[in-house]
Amino acid sequence: MRGRLLTRLMLLVVVAGGLAAFLASTSLASRAHHRHKPPPRPSISTAPNPSVAGERVLVSGHVPGARRGTAVSLYRQLPTGGRFVRVAVTTTNRHGAYVFRRTPGVVYTNRRFYVIARQRRSRTIAQAVEAVVSVSASSTIVSPGQSFTLSGHVTPNHAGESVLIEEEQPDGSWMLLTTAPLDAFSDYAASTQLASEGTFTFRAVLNGDSRNVLSSSPAVTVTAEYMGIHKIRHIVIIMQENRSFDSYFGTFPGANGIPPGVCVPDPVNGGCVKPFHDSADLNYGGPHGQSNATADVDGGKMDGFVGQAEKGQGCTSTNPNCSPCTTSSTSKCVDVMGYHDAREIPNYWRYAQDFVLQDNMFQPNASWSLPEHLYQVSEWSAFCTDPLQPSSCTNALQSPNPPGAPLDTTPLYAWTDITYLLHEYGVPWAYYVFKGTEPDCENDSAMTCKPVQQGPQTPGIWNPLPHFTDVQQDGQLGNVQSLTDFFLAAQAGALPAVSWIDPNGTVSEHPPALVSAGQTYVTGLINAIMASPDWNSTAIFLSWDDWGGFYDHVVPPVIDENGLGLRVPGIVISPYARRGYIDHQLLSHDNFTKFIEDDFLGGQRLDPTTDGRPDPRPDVREASPALGDLSSDFDFTQPPRPPEILPVHPAPGPPSTPPQ
Fold first, then answer.
1. Strand 581-583 vs strand 356-358: parallel, antiparallel, or unpaired?
2. Beta bridge partners of 125
């Protein structure tokens, strides 16, 4: 028994000794392991990341086990690669934390950082940098179609690269508009334009590369809206025939009308003839060629009108040398001294009262209809010996090349007309020719109607464009259209930018055409425009091509060897026209061309030195400093005025006050 106990006791001693030895060896191994394990690596982070080029960047972290004052070294590698370079040294605080403050203007490009502390290197961190991209617009409010420039700068310098100009889409995405190269100073500029009204947002984007990540500028907003003269998107020139200012508006209140005491000599009947109210719907007028203009003016005495009418040869045509009054009786020649007022032309007076009357408007040339219509579209009247050579054209106020036939295959006029520039600039135009002999309505009480198409095409003296060589060469003959096309375009809201409308003989007011027929026709045209979706962006210029031999008391100013001619009525009708305004500026039909050029052609003139098709015209007529500016007849700050539809067969208006 005692033996077995002793044996067990000895066995326990051995086991205990072995366990103690095992535990002792385990403890030694553990202490040895802790003595050889390296301390943790320093941590590292940057903020902000990505940063903006030149922005202040903080590099910070913690050094485990570090005491206050432990040295920490910052190493940097640039995007060009190469070895890391120590760029700064700092120390830890009592918590083992450190901070490197990279001051503004230091971090411009992508780079990599790590730190070393207590002989331990942190992980490598990539610092991403966005380039600074700016963008600005040369104007934040532009007209549709007007060029403007988006420009800016990229920091750091990215010379030789390009920025992307992007436009924001309605769904918030961005669409590439164009690219712009960066110059040696890292500047860029790109010109563009907006096709329609609205607000548009743009930005500039620099693609990412080794130096910078994808970077974009703040957005810039540009508003496109028509401003000033450019609110007029449709110009309609209605040209009637053969009436002087005094014959239609000589007694209009506030206008420079017939002065008291006028009495013009009557060589045939003796004595003199005073201005008188003429209620006749059919007038005769007098001859109105170049020599007649000179004789009517008579060196500034303005007293040749009756005598010239009585000398004119008998006629029933539009020959400027004839006088319809002599066909019937020379006693009727005195009607050149007659005047009309609201009793005969109530609609014309209503337009003058409610819109703009121009009482200092002159025909551009001191001659008859064909030279004026040539001026109307080209600012010159000439005779060309070679229809393909502008240099062959010479000044011809009275006798330019006469119209030939057929109109669409016979070039006559080699010099440049305004449609050449309209075509070059992509500006749509039309020249509407009234083929009928009289406007009529199925219902006489109707406010508007399409004229009945009767009879032949308008005579060539009022329709010169098909004879212009440049019109044929530009393939623009189809723009000379029937008046029916005008009514269809107005109804559809599809008027071209520039329209000319010339009448036929019956509605022209050219003696012996009836005054009432002309007023009815013109009222129908204006009503159609006012009823059109295009009304709110239209300017109508109504005038008469020459004085037709009728009396006017104002001496025409001399602009050049061709004119000006005698004074004629001018009326401006537009939703932006001033109300009840009388324009006293010196004007001529040349101003219509100037207005077209200023509105649609950026001010380009029919100037042989700049228009791309030189000709030997004596001057750039529409650029004459003596002429006023039609834009003063408008108030583009006012809301568009509503249409004013007038009856095409109006009742007579009240009488005016005659000159004393």
1. parallel
2. 113
Residue positions counted in the chain: 660
Phi-psi domain of 470 (left: phi exceeds 0; alpha: psi -120 through 50; beta: other): alpha
Say whether 569 sits in a helix, a strand or coil.
Answer: coil
Per DSSP, 39 falls in state P
Q: How far from the centroid of its chain's Cα atoms is residue 117's Cα?
A: 68
Half-sphere exposure of 85 (CA within 13 A, CB side): 8
User: In whole angstroms, how far apart are CA 173 and each of 170, 180, 224, 318?
Assistant: 7, 20, 20, 65
**Cα 212 from chain centre:** 40
Mean pLDDT in residue range 31-55: 84
- Residue 244 CA to residue 554 CA, distance in Å, equals 10
For residue 367, which of 396, 333, 338 has the smallest C-alpha distance? Answer: 396
User: Rounded to an integer, what distance in angstroms lies between the CA atom of residue 484 and that of residue 329?
Assistant: 38
Cα 467 to the center of its chain, rounded Å: 29
Tokens of 657: 């006050």
Residue 331 CA to residue 311 CA, distance in Å, equals 12
Measured distance CA(464)–CA(469) in Å, rounded = 11
Distance CA 388, CA 414 (A): 6
DSSP 462: G
Q: What angle do CA 358, 364, 367 make, to 5 degrees?
A: 120
pLDDT tens per residue, range 174-221: 999 999 999 999 999 999 999 888 999 999 999 999 999 999 999 999
Average model confidence (pLDDT) across the chain: 90
User: SS3 for 579-628, per residue?
Assistant: CCEEECCCEECHHHHHHHHHHHCCCCCCCCCCCCCCCCCCCCHHHCCCCC
Q: Please tell me the distance from the alpha carbon of residue 429 to that of residue 498, in angstroms, as a whole number.
A: 5
Q: Supply 518's token pair.
A: 């002309």
Task: Give the mean model confidence (pLDDT) for residues 108-134.
Answer: 97
Confidence of residue 446 (pLDDT cuts 50, 70, 90): very low
pLDDT at 322: 79
CA 551 to chain centre: 40
- Cα separation of 375 and 590, whole Å? 7
- What are the residues whose beta carbons fall under 8 Å from the beta carbon of 81, sequence distance 6 or more? none
Q: What mean pLDDT do residues 343-357 have?
A: 98
**What 8-state DSSP symbol labels residue 585?**
S
Q: pLDDT-derived band of residue 318, with 50, 70 and 90 as boundaries?
A: low
DSSP code of residue 641: P
Q: The whole model's pTM is what?
A: 0.76
Tally of CB atoms within 10 A around 618: 12
> How would residue 600 be classed by pLDDT, with cut points 50, 70 and 90?
very high
CA 347 to CA 648: how far, in whole Å? 8
Question: Measured between alpha carbons, how far is 282 from 266 in angstroms, rounded to an integer?
Answer: 21
- DSSP of 314-351, one letter per residue? P-SS--TTB-HHHHH-GGGGGGGGEE--TTT-HHHHHH
pLDDT of residue 471: 94
Instruction: Count H helices and E strands in the chain, helices first.
Output: 12, 36
Q: Which two tokens stand for residue 464?
A: 């010169």
Other Cβ atoms within 10 Å of 477 Cβ, number? 14
